[in-house]
Structure formats: structure tokens, C-alpha cells
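fyi for ur records
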Amino acid sequence: MRFQNKHNLLWQVLALSGVLALGGCNSSDDPTSSSSTTIEGSIFAAPVAGATVTVFDDNGNEVAGPVSSGADGRYRISIPNVDLASALSFVSNGGTFSDEATAESNVVAGEMSVYVAAGTLGAGDEVHATPTSTIMHELVMTHEKTPTEAVAAIEGAFGYPVDFSIAPTDATVPATGASDSEKLAGLRAAGFSQLTADLGLNAADQFVLLAALAEDLSDGALDGQSASGAVLVSGSIPLASHIQHQFSMALTGFHGGDQDNSGLAANQIGTLPFAKVVNSASYRFEYLQGMMSAMEGKTSFKVAVTDAATGLTPQSGLALTLQAKMSMATRVHQTPVDGCVESATAGTYECTIFYLMPSLMNDVSMGYWQLMVTANSEMVSFFPEVGMGMNGNGKRKLMAQATGSTIDAVTGLSVPTYSDFVMMNTSARMYFLFKGDITAGSTSGHKVRLFAAANESMDSFPALYSGASFNMDSFTANPVVVEFSTDSNSWSAMSDEANGYWSIDDVPALTDGAESTFYVRLTVNSEQKTADGNLPALDGSNDYAVFTTTLN
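which gave:
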């Protein structure tokens, strides 16, 4: 609104001076003009038709336009070359669009905008106004953030950077031939449409919501608060403290809904914002990171639970349950979990989960993890980015012998891999071993703990211990023998601690501060499990798992 007001004032001054006719001189459509450069782009909250687009310099002076966007939301505007050295604001007002989340047509658009840094725009460049670019413009022009600060705040809040050069395509009806990046830009824009609907607002309220989100982010955190206190939409509706989480749920909810026709898979939607605070009806859940951030293998963290109303009263004595699912290109699978136990601090619960795979591998997205925490039937979700296991901190896999005399089998078993779930030629069960704690032994050396789990299905990875039942109680793992070695020749049985944990005490050959290697052998119901499902080669090629780690 600030630029529109300055534009109106300038228009009145020009009229009084008798030179109103000069106002259209900045709107030449001649791309070959030596004195101007033609820029194209779009106004996109879904394509906005009939929007009025004007360009202002960093002093609020109109330098080009107004022009109107077409039915496809696109516009074309010529900017005097002399003004390209200035920071520019592309500002649109009005026009109509069809809302993605509600399918409501002829929704009247509010102000949308793009901030372009000085000296960065040239012939052939495109400038597309989106919900994200509008929030960034507000941060810079209304809340006086530097462009660098605004970019960092947006990426931290929404999980992706601002890129106004990409032309979004409508996620409900993608343009023929649209690239994946254009589809993703459209999907992210639709996330704000879905957020508007999820908050109970009308589709046309999306634009006051964008202004509220910018105000919220002006202090660097998307948490319902600014330096001035609670942030209100339209002056009366407060943003929730977990608004960042609400955006994640809106984006994933739209992506999984009937309105989304982008065709993008879960591994193509990028990193989701990891909101650390989420409210349910009765509780406030806060994710507290452990010594290490979430990674493939064992991840320990805490969840502090207080009352939702004030966030001040610890909620003690709850039975928290964990569940996590990985949404990949074409499959969804879960992962082994241990659970949560209340710590000595009332209302704070120590939790352990065993991630089967990372979110990213070599900077390529595998998909995204959704971590669900439930208390008294009230479930909330977190979206942690899970890193690759470092130096033995991940998992190791062994599998039942497909050629054995008693096949340890699962019907239609799918095995999680980094690329996707791969259907095995056999139905031999996969077992997972996770490195746990390595601590000082009771008398000397070190104590080593492992966690073992079996793959029942994509949604079930129960703990492995003697007496555990699988296949709807038709198969009982008994006995289970886990053996440990530091040289792959001499083997010692590990103790069954129940619930999937196995340990061995007073291991002499591990050295603090040095890289150490140890070996683990698994036998279930007298059948030794191997790396490839074949009979044990007895030469170290397939008959045990190898862990390499550096002790702290």
C-alpha cells in the first residue's frame, strides 16, 4: 500500500502541473528501445487476470506502468534503462483469480509485489509476483529488513528460497510443458491458498494474511509474535504460535489432496520447514534437539509438553507414542521406534527413534519425514530434516536366507532403499541393526549397545528379541542370537535386554578418540542372517554386519 499511496500523490502533482499526459511515457512495449528494457512476468496467486502492475524505484517514484496482466496472469512492461540501477518494486493491485484450495472463481486479488535489488535486472529477465515474493517485499519495504535478512528469514520460515525468476504454473491445471521447477513454484503458491482456507479465512483474505506473515517474520521467527506483540490478521484474528507448522501441514495437505494436479512426487517438493513448536487441542509440544540433529540411525531428542492455553504448565505422566513416516517418490514407509519416557524434568520426555534413511543423499532429496507424537489421542507432527549417518552412526542390514530350509518370510515384502522401495524377488525378511550407545564398561573397556528390528511391512518394523512374534503371530523368533566381535574371528554373545536392545560389556579393543571397527552376527531360529540372503560364505563377504565408528 505504501507504493500505491506514493503513486497516487505523484499522479496528483503531475495533474496539477499540467503534464498528466506524460504519465504513460514509461510504458513503451518496444523491446528494442535503446532507452528502455522490456521485462515480462506474471502475477500469481494462481494466475491473476486484470491486475494493475506498476514499477517503483527505491524512493517510491513510479518509473514504469501501469499495465494490466492478461487472462494467464502475465504482463509486459518497459522500464527506462536509467532506472535499472535502482532497486525496484513491482507492485500489482486488483484483478481476479480462481483459488486453488477452494476452487472459488473470480476471487478479487489484493496487493502482490516483488523486490528487485539494484542493478540485477536486464533484458530477457522475468519477474513473477508470488505469495513468497510479496512477503519478502513487505519485509524489506515495510519492516526495513535488508534483502539478505529477508531472504534468510523466508528460507528459515518456509523451507525454500525466494526466486522470482521462475514462472509458476497453476497446480490445479498445470500448463502443458511446464517444468518441474515451474510446477513446484505453483505448488508452493497453492500452499498459501490452503493455509488461508485452513485458518478459516475467505480466499480473498490471503493477501492480508501475507502481510500478517511478513509482520510475524519481521523479528526473524514465524511464531505468531512480532516485536510489537501478537500478530493479527485483519486486525482481529491472531496468528497461532505454531503458524510455521500450519504452513507445513497446508503445503503437504494440498499436495496430497484432490485439487493438486502438479504431478510432483514427495521427493520433489523440497525441504519442509521444521517447526519446533506445535499445539494440539490440549497440549503444546516442543521438540528439543539432542546432542546431534536428526540423522539416519539412532536419533535421541526430547519433547517438552505443556498446556496449550498458556504453554507454562508442564504436563506430567503422559504416555507419549512415536510414529514416523517417510514420503518418497512412489511409496510411503515407516521406521523403527523405541518410544518416549518422562525424564527427571516434569513434562519433558526423552525419546528415541531409528531412522532408516536420510531426507537428502548427496544433496538429492529422497522425500520428507513426518514425525508424529501422540498424547491422549491428540497427535501433532514435526518435519525434521534427517541427515546421513556419519561414521557408523547409521544402520546395517542383514536378511533371511531365501534358500534356507526354513525360510523366514514375509508376504509381499518391500525393502527400503535410498532410491525407493524395491520389491524383492524373494520374500525373505530384512533385519536392521542400529548402533546404540558406546560407554565405559562396568569394570574395564567399553559397553556396546545395539538396537535390532525386523521388517514386517512398509508400516511395521517391530523390535527383535527372543520371543518376538511376527506374521500375525504365525512366526516366533526364538531363539535370537546376536554375536559381537572386534576381529571377525572370535565371537561373543550379546545380552538380550528386551525390547530390541542388545549389549556386551567390557569390550577391551575399542579406543576413545580413535576409529574402531566391530562386527555383528545375527541368527534367528538357528538360521544365520546374511547380507545378500544367500548361505553364509564364511569368508566375511556376506555373513556379518560391519560397524566403523570413532569413539568420543
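The radius of gyration is 29 Å. thats all i got for now
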